[in-house]
Amino acid sequence: MRTTYRMRAGRFLGVLAAGLILLGLAAIAWAVGLPDAVVGVFLVLGGLVALAGLWILLRPPVLLKLGKEQIEVRGVKTDWTDITEVGRVETTHGEAVVLRTKHQDSSILIPVSWLPPGQDEKLATDLRDRLNSAHGYTIWDGTAGEDADRAE
Which tens digits make up the pLDDT trace of 124-145? Predict the structure, then answer.
């Protein structure tokens, strides 16, 4: 099963705002009496940018995908077995989830502020469960093992 986490939509309000500003400039150009070609350019550009902004707000870009065998963060794929540790760090952009890999100097950062509100706890649970299953760990239920299951 694949789980997809998208970026917080509010990060992209500026795209819609830019489109609305261009549409406003088209209205001003029309009111001032500029040529129809100028008004048309501002209308088309403003309309396209505003539509793109609405599209991004309705369907924000994918931040990460959690697959059965791999995790994909902003297009970079890493096998679950290559991840050795998950933690939280403070960065210049706020708190982030860090995935440390077997490769030195190859940590993957997932800024928490990029996630929609409340998704960071769900992400932490998903990461823990997928890492446990990838490395063969199970949650201990408090019972003793079988007699034939001796520790080495």
Answer: 888 888 888 887 776 666 665 5
73 close to 110: Cβ distance less than 8 angstroms = yes
**What pLDDT, in 10s, does the model give residues 40-88?**
999 999 999 999 999 999 999 999 999 888 899 888 888 888 888 888 8
pLDDT tops 80 at residue 150: no
For residue 99, the SS3 value is: strand
Those residues with Cβ within 8 angstroms of residue 117's Cβ, 6 or more apart along the chain or in another chain:
8
Reduced to 3 states, what is the DSSP secondary structure of residue 91? strand
State whether the Cα torsion 88-134-81-142 is positive or negative: positive
Quote the tokens at residue 5: 């986490």
Q: How far apart are CA 107 and CA 112, in angstroms?
A: 15
Indicate whether this model's pTM tops 0.70: yes
Helix (H, G, I), strand (E, B) or coil at 140: coil
The CA-atom distances, in angstroms, between 151 and each of 62, 133, 136, 142 are 44, 21, 16, 16
In the chain the first and final C-alpha atoms are separated, in Å, by: 34
